[in-house]
Design a protein that fits this description.
By secondary structure, the chain is α/β, with parallel strands linked by helices. It has helices at about 30-40, 55-70, 85-105, 105-115, 140-155, 180-185, 200-210, 230-240, 250-260, 265-275, 285-305, 310-320, 330-335, 340-355, 370-379, and strands at about 45, 75-80, 120-125, 130-135, 160-165, 190-200, 220-225, 245, 280, 360, 365. It has a 5-stranded parallel β-sheet with strand order 2-5-6-1-7, with helices on both faces. It is built from 15 helices and 11 strands. It is globular and about 60 Å long. The protein starts with about 25 loop residues before the first helix and ends with a helix.
């Protein structure tokens, strides 16, 4: 996890990483629940869509744990980019070694020697000079190396907390039995507590709630909802007032509602407003801040959508225009947006969902990236 910076931030609205409790809004109850589960020997499954703040909650919980106990070891690894078991082990090994480097350089040498199967390399970053770790695993030693990593963490004689983000990725690994193997290793580790977090609700719930899956009923389940609007507004307005400025409650309400309270988007807009404005009192100011982010992302969105077929792009744009679609295969929706047959829409929807471009909420299908949705509406 990112280290807490002591210097005061120039802009308090952080939407990349974690900068300490001063810049973290609320989540008091959720933080207490996370810490209580871990400290009382319960592994935790945290499920929420992306951009709502689960990584921030994990970072904040780990910060509080380490504040109370300096010996506690808190490790975070995001496995979203991994495609197979070997890449999973490499990501996990790199996170463990980087944590060791941060805590105690002399201890890191022992870690490197212990994980001979990882073949780690430590080199200085060209810009910062700080040590960076690259790891590769001998394919035939993947399972052995994974077991040795868990054994090492279990034998540290310190409280160890390991968060594995986007855990649902392991369900797509080509290696058969990955879930069962991980479960068999983890159930014998008594001195390490785990947070398994994920953004694909149906996959995570199936992994941890289906009786025929290895992780069935092995953890405490927890979901994450958007921050309470009133609490969030009080948090935000205080930063504007601290620089003798104003943040209109109505403007904040409009921003919050437009993005359904999803923290990343609200923080991104507030960050821009704090940078550009002293008094935020009009809808036009918020609109300009939103447009700034959309224009910034436009080249990325052009590249992203260029890989879609015409049917996939048409469906994506139609969902964006509709905001939320309960029945994407219904005749009314198809006719309204001049889409092809229901079978073609079904095929396109499967691809967009698999690519995480479209997400199924309890209310219906939405475009996952809210800025992308607004960009699609504008074109």
């Amino acid at each position: 996890m990112a280290k807490k910076r002591q210097a005061k931030l120039g802009n308090p609205f952080v939407y990349q990483g974690y900068e300490g409790p001063k810049y973290f809004c609320d989540r008091t109850e959720e933080t207490e629940n996370v810490i209580s589960a871990l400290k009382n020997g319960r592994n935790l499954t945290l499920i929420s869509p992306r951009k709502i703040g689960k990584t921030g909650l994990i970072s904040h919980s780990f910060h509080q744990i380490k504040k109370e106990n300096k010996d506690a070891i808190c490790i975070y690894v995001d496995i979203f980019p991994t495609k197979n078991l070997q890449e999973f082990v490499e990501s996990l090994g790199r996170a463990v070694i980087e944590d060791a480097l941060e805590r105690e350089k002399s201890f890191a040498a022992k870690v490197l020697d212990f994980f001979k199967g990882l073949r780690p390399t430590i080199t200085p970053d060209l810009l910062t000079g700080m040590p960076t770790v690259s790891v590769s695993v001998v394919p035939v030693q993947t399972e052995y190396t994974l077991k040795s990593i868990f054994s090492h963490l279990n034998d540290l004689n310190k409280p160890v907390y390991l968060a594995i983000d986007e855990f649902q990725q392991i369900a797509d690994y080509p290696e058969k039995g990955t879930e069962a193997m991980l479960r068999s290793y983890i159930q014998h580790i008594h001195h390490v507590r785990f947070i398994f977090s994920g953004s694909k609700k149906h996959l995570m719930e199936e992994m941890f709630c289906a009786p025929n899956r290895p992780f069935y009923q092995s953890t405490q389940l927890m979901s994450l909802e958007p921050l309470h609007e009133e609490i969030y507004y009080d948090f935000a307005r205080r930063f504007f007032e601290a620089k003798k400025g104003v943040l209109s409650q109505q403007v904040f309400h409009d921003i919050y509602q437009r993005f359904n309270g999803y923290t990343w988007y609200v923080q991104a807009i507030l960050n821009r407003l704090y940078e550009q404005e002293k008094k935020v009192e009009t809808e036009q100011q918020a609109a300009e801040a939103i447009l700034f982010h959309i224009n910034t992302m436009a080249p990325h969105y052009l590249a992203l959508t260029s890989f879609l077929t015409p049917n996939q792009f048409s469906l994506l744009k139609a969902i964006a225009l509709a905001d939320c679609v309960q029945q994407p295969l219904g005749n009314e929706f198809i006719k309204r947006y001049d889409l092809p047959s229901a079978s073609s829409v079904k095929a396109a929807l499967a691809v967009l969902t698999d690519k995480d471009m479209v997400y199924l909420t309890p209310e219906g299908y939405i475009v996952y990236d809210r800025f992308l949705s607004l960009w699609l509406k504008r074109i």
